[in-house]
Amino acid sequence: MKPGIRARLMILALAFLVIPALGYYSSLEIRGFLLRGQQSSQLMAVQAIASVLRERYDLFLAHAGAASSKEWDAVNYIYSATAPIKLDGDSADWGSVIETGKRVLGRESLIKETGGGFDPESGGFDLAMARWGERVYLWINARDQAVVSQAPGRAAPEKADHILLTLIDGDKGQTEYLIPVSPTGELSFWARPGPGEPYLRDETLLGRSAIGPAGYRMEIAIPESRIAGSMMIKILLVDVDDPRTGRERYTLGPRDDETPGLIRLGYLESNSIQRMLENLELGGAWVMVVDSKSRVRAESGSLPVEPVFHHVISRRIMSEGSPISEIQEDGAGGDLVVSGAPIKGLERDILGAVILASSASVAQSMQEKAMENAIEASMFAFIVITFGLALFATRLALRIHRLRREAEGAIDATGRVTVESLRASRDAGDEIGDLSRSISQLLTRLRRHQDFLALLPGALKHEINNPLNNITVSLENLEAHTPAGDAHKYIKSAGRGAARLKELVDSLAEAASVEDSIQKEKFERVCLSSLLERYMENSARMDARHTIKFINLAGDAYIEGSDFKIEQMLDKLMDNAMDYCPDGGMIEARLERSRNGLLLNFSNSGPTIPDHMKEKIFDSLVSTREGRGGARPHLGIGLYIARVIAEGHGGAISACNLPDGNGTMFQMIFPENR
């Protein structure tokens, strides 16, 4: 089924949805232009900062806690944490500090080993340090397949796997802490002021541990004041294999100095660089300076940044040795414009990098605004145009439907033209109006031709009957004046032919007249049951060869119609029944009520009707059977007249064979007038 006019216009209206697509494409172009401008200006900014820092070469050599530049690689950096650190043995709140600044200690850090107990695949530990508030935090991740923890209540903490942490507090001396692995997670700290002295429980430090299948983790919080004087600590990991004897398998620790486990500390941020960045007015951007080992020296501003963001970017900058600028996701559904430039020394060596990131919110907001305006404008235009097209299509469809209904009603079921002009869109000046007027002209010509055909049988009857009467009279005179013999036989045969020709002309004239008169007849309320009863009684008195009866199951039944036309219809049915019903056969009329009106069954015994002719038998000039002995011509006019009269009364007629196959039955249905 093809779509109608309204559906096609609605499909056409969908073409306006290309407006938002064009708006979206334009917004992308605008956003790209703004981002390119932002990248260009940002790249110039980082190059300017890198040029300034190149002149301050000393800032990358001097830093808190480092004696001189030659000790650069021997300094263990304390990073600034980005969020408060919770002592729970988990590294989730350390951010990028562990990934960026952890120190891995393996076989090269082996200080003492007993009986080859150290396995480089399953031994060793990682160390990282961070600062938050007034505390310095240590994160230790020890790899150990057989962790020996301090049993609750055990007095000898050295018989468990433990950490030896020595805090060197400048002129105040140093304190060694023994920190055993705790099965409960709460760390205990055992302190002794000097060698050979006993370990005593200490509450000044805090920490937690967590034991896993591959080892254990510790988080330890140290007051910053305990290390500020010397910026040095000593840390050793002692692995115990026998909790009863406390026998040690191996001891690990940094070997940066002649003293095993001693490490120098330094805060990674440079105060001078930090103040320089804070004095820059970058409009909400985030800037970071890293050294040649991707360690953070200073940072200013805040943006949602991935944990290893600067680590990855700085490595690219220093490996390529040239500025870069790109767009990255910020992890919160937005974009960042990230630019970076290397900081080169006097000898063109790379000291570090400057990384600048700013939100693409300006470009994004302008894109969203442009997209919003395009969508609003296009949706408004789409709604208005669609509504207008819907109204136009509805009006157009209604006009076409009215024109179709009038055109279908202009010709009745019998094919007769009932009106000569259509009213729908008759005065319209568009194509539908032209179509209405063309159909009206066509109906007018058809009506004239129909009237001509209606008058033709009467005219032919008059013109044919005059010479036919002369022929009939001449044959009668010829018969009267001709001696008896063979000549009389031919004269009688010619007379019968003339009589049949006259009957044919009369039948055609009758058929034409009934079509015309049924349209002009004034109907009135007629008692169909009484009319049928009288008609069948009269037919029974006049025909002794057949059994004629009427069965009334409807009682008093009325229709709106013409009693003369109903009797004319019954005449045709009775003529047809008498013509085909054998002597002694039954002719019966039965009237009853049905769901659709009054049902009249008119049946007779005799031959049946072929199935393929049951619909065609009511057409004009259609006959399928010979009459009794051929005494009367079968022109196919009688049943056609019966159909015209039945349909003219708002009813219908159909033919079928009797169930026992011994006759035919005509069924008529009429609307009842109650």
Question: Any overview of this molecule?
Answer:
Mean pLDDT is 80; it is low at 62-73 and 626-631. Strands 1, 2, 3, 4, 5, 6, 7, 8, 9, 10, 11, 12, 13 and 14 form a 14-stranded mixed sheet that branches. The protein has a five-stranded antiparallel sheet with strand order 16-15-19-18-17, sandwiched between helices. It has a five-stranded mixed sheet with strand order 21-23-24-26-25. Helix content is 37%, strand content 26%. It has four domains: 1-63 and 268-409, PAS domain (Beta-Lactamase, 2-Layer Sandwich), CATH 3.30.450; 74-267, Immunoglobulin-like; 414-520, Helix Hairpins (Orthogonal Bundle); 521-670, Heat Shock Protein 90. Helix 2 (18-55) packs antiparallel against helix 6 (361-409). The longest helix is centred in the last third of the chain and has 50 residues, at 431-480. It has helices at 5-13, 18-55, 97-101, 271-279, 309-320, 361-409, 431-480, 486-520, 528-542, 563-580, 638-648, and strands at 75-80, 103-105, 110-113, 125-132, 135-143, 162-168, 174-180, 189-192, 200-202, 206-212, 215-223, 232-242, 247-252, 262-267, 286-291, 296-300, 324-329, 335-344, 350-359, 524-527, 547-552, 558-561, 586-594, 597-605, 652-657, 663-670. It starts with a helix and ends with a strand. Strand 18 and strand 19 (350-359) form a beta hairpin. By secondary structure, it is an alpha+beta fold. The chain contains eleven helices and 26 strands.
